[in-house]
């Protein structure tokens, strides 16, 4: 009892000390903090560190301005997001130049394989979903008799149903800050149908994409750099960026490339202890399943171990499940962490779990609509009130995205007018994704010094390139991370845009890049050819 | 339990947002129990019966389902200009509404926004310095996140203010430096007040970094004069503050003495050195005006005199969220380049827009007059925006009763109002006010034909309340 009381007292003292800490505006402190917590060999490192010396040259008058590089929030400077980073800027410049200077390049077009943005590469939206959205956008359509010729009957029914759930049928009004109740009911029903365990619409918080939900949780969980979040390495850099923006510490746990990017509990334990010894309190464990960039689908057994680990260590489990409908291999299946936890007999009192879902991925690929939700379970009501409060400051997420999220979680059923065409569209997209994943994976594995784990799920391939020493030396001379050096060369030779592995982090000394499987099937052979040719000439140039 | 309340980020716990706080939650409860509630707590026009403009909805419906454009019968249901516009906006996207756009928003739409700003102000505007966001609120949060490093950084915020500012400053761990608007001078802004606020903050070791103005004001509705804006800009120049100009209500002007004039125009009119050195970020939205498309979540900010390296950093942070939602970007494009005279849809568009604005103007007057006819209520005229912010002079008996109930006086009043009439307002304490002076905020958005009844209902409740608690010993007043 006495030890507990001392522990509590210490917590209070620590918290007070944190609150009253004098603020260090001084640039040197910021740099020191940066060097402690920075990614190794990151692409934008040179730009950031050079900025402190370059600053006086290019921003000479800016130091007197209230908003200048040396006076903005250092957390902004620190955070990075390679998916739309330097390589993409170069690609965009090339793309502009291509318009007028076609002959200067060995390729005709830039192919963006850097970002999971299916509809920008020709994937078509699901017709039924867009029918419903159009009808909800312009409700006068429902009163026109001509409409019945243009729209499927079940899309008209569904639009009416949704509009009845919206007060005044006003799709232009702010909704409840958690999202329209009727739509949350549909999502909860969808979760229950998927998992076989009940879901409560009051646990659902709808957001503009899944990313804002992740930010909200980081905001709640992180009070200072003493708060750590366990993140997989490699990871989708929303996590590292969000943790940096909120001033916390990323505690890495390494996925095992040799065993198909397996997640080892022993590794989790080791990293947790390591963090503790550095004075970091780990608050949550982020798991991306299926993985991004790594594509692995966790086995149920693995998931049970993760759930037990979180329960035992008192960690919030942040389950990023946005790729739940992207599974390409017959030997793996998606199981939500909620289902796994409930099947273990764990309820609201046993585990704090936040599950993220999005409309951007799957077979629907509706990135630009910005829709998603988080299902928040295992929190006390006073914590949930805080989540609600933060959500309310932004009033609500966009209604069109909310409608789509409900459609994704309760799509057409057998017997519905649109069912057959819906299924055909869905299966067409998913089988094509699986086939492209396989084709690209095979091609990558044929390259000298390249090994690529299969994409069990998600939308990416993350090959490992064994770069020759000469290449690494050339990269260093160019003040670029070796994988970024390779990716830039690839871009300049082929027009193909991929993201260097350092943008996702990786075991130090290993090099990867992330390439999406999203270009349309007819472009894949050309991509494979160009990539193969480029790689051969690269190796010819740099082979040891 | 992994996440205990005690272990939550303190900044989250500190932050308050009354617009959807206690009153709203209580109103929602009562509504579930079957009581008729009139929600006047948030500027949400469509929720109170205002119809969306037809043209933009036609265009966006076509963009949602581009297969309609291929149908030979589409011309029977949609006017030709809506069809053309849908094709235009789809051509600006890289894959339709379902693809992430540039993280700053579609370049084509940003160009249209720049052209709009240029037409409005008479000065060139650079699309590269315009970022589209999921609602203006997100833009405000992004900029404040850039400016605030810690609690040593202060942001000048008007009192009363729209609590997005106080909530965001709390969440980001900064300090709110209040400057009081003068109710007796139509919520005017006195530069001396500003100077005092800044001096006081500095004496407490706070570095004042930015100043927020909301023009037209929320909740107060005042429209700043050109002279006022000049003073403010000069003040920002002298004190080295970045000015954050929340101009989301620029279409909502209900008097003719002070039309809307943008901070950017005044700044440019002032010429060197001001026009080249004062840092300004201006915010706008599709949620207000006569559009009222709150649920779309569409907004933008325009940066002036922000160094390129900082613009890059803001871009970087925007890219983490990938992109603002594309449908709303199209709404924004349509708002800044609406149908023109001669266009097929122009007459209908002009009729709908005019109808809404004129009705808002009438309702602003009905409400102001209605409040002023109530016992112990004094209300400044709503010059702009969407709200009425009457001062409620609570008698000592009411203050006493509030204290006994454990409620802040205006919360007490508003809860009683809600329970008696179903009118759901936001207590003035949610926006900040002078000590001992109480207000409530309501919107002017209820349907015009329902307004007389609503004002009667309010008057009945108020006058009875005042009589009940009136013991003649003096009132709360400024």
Automatic annotation (TrEMBL), chain A:
Keywords: Aminotransferase, Pyridoxal phosphate, Transferase. Signal peptide: none annotated. Residues 45-66 are annotated as: Disordered. Its EC number is 2.6.1.2. Its cofactor is pyridoxal 5'-phosphate. Pathway: Amino-acid degradation; L-alanine degradation via transaminase pathway; pyruvate from L-alanine: step 1/1; Photosynthesis; C4 acid pathway. Residues 169-524 form the Aminotransferase class I/classII large domain. It is an enzyme of class 2 (transferase). GO terms for molecular function: L-alanine:2-oxoglutarate aminotransferase activity; pyridoxal phosphate binding. PANTHER family: ALANINE AMINOTRANSFERASE, ALANINE TRANSAMINASE. Belongs to the class-I pyridoxal-phosphate-dependent aminotransferase family. Alanine aminotransferase subfamily. This is alanine transaminase. The lineage of its organism: Eukaryota, Viridiplantae, Streptophyta, Embryophyta, Tracheophyta.
UniProtKB/TrEMBL annotation, chain B:
The keyword Transferase applies. It is found in: Peroxisome. Its cofactor is pyridoxal 5'-phosphate. Keywords: Aminotransferase, Peroxisome, Pyridoxal phosphate, Transferase. Pathway: Amino-acid degradation; L-alanine degradation via transaminase pathway; pyruvate from L-alanine: step 1/1; Photosynthesis; C4 acid pathway. GO terms for cellular component: peroxisome. GO terms for molecular function: alanine-glyoxylate transaminase activity; glycine:2-oxoglutarate aminotransferase activity; L-alanine:2-oxoglutarate aminotransferase activity; pyridoxal phosphate binding. It comes from the Eukaryota. It catalyses: glycine + 2-oxoglutarate = glyoxylate + L-glutamate; glyoxylate + L-alanine = glycine + pyruvate. Residues 82-456 form the Aminotransferase class I/classII large domain. Belongs to the class-I pyridoxal-phosphate-dependent aminotransferase family. Alanine aminotransferase subfamily. This is Aminotransferase class I/classII large domain-containing protein. It comes from Brassica carinata (Ethiopian mustard).
